[in-house]
Sequence to fold (133 residues):
Amino acid sequence: FVDVRDHPEFAAGHIEGAYSTPLPDMIDFGVVSVFVQAGEDLIPKMLRLPRMPIIVYSEVATPFSRCRAWCRWLLRAGHKTIKAGQVRRLRGGIFGWRHRNGPITRPVESGAAALHAVPAGDANLAERAIAAA
Fold:
């Protein structure tokens, strides 16, 4: 998962394992710089697994959402290792993910992150969200 919201929004709560790559940072500093800052394993993972879908989300998924703009910007930048079919938007954004009781990592009082559990019946929530994208 790739979260394209701003850093404070990401810190307030995000999908477990998501990488933070805000659209303004991508425009200002470039794809590679932002991907490296998001996580040292992001670029190697994308190169090792070229068929792995990249699920992009923002707060909500609308025709004018940040995730749609991020996808268009990335693909128009002409990045050769990322194919158009590999990039998908999360239906409903993180708002929809929360509504479907998807797991969210949030800070706790001590400053550490905590994962809120997924109900047992929703174990395949990520797969359903990808399929719906």
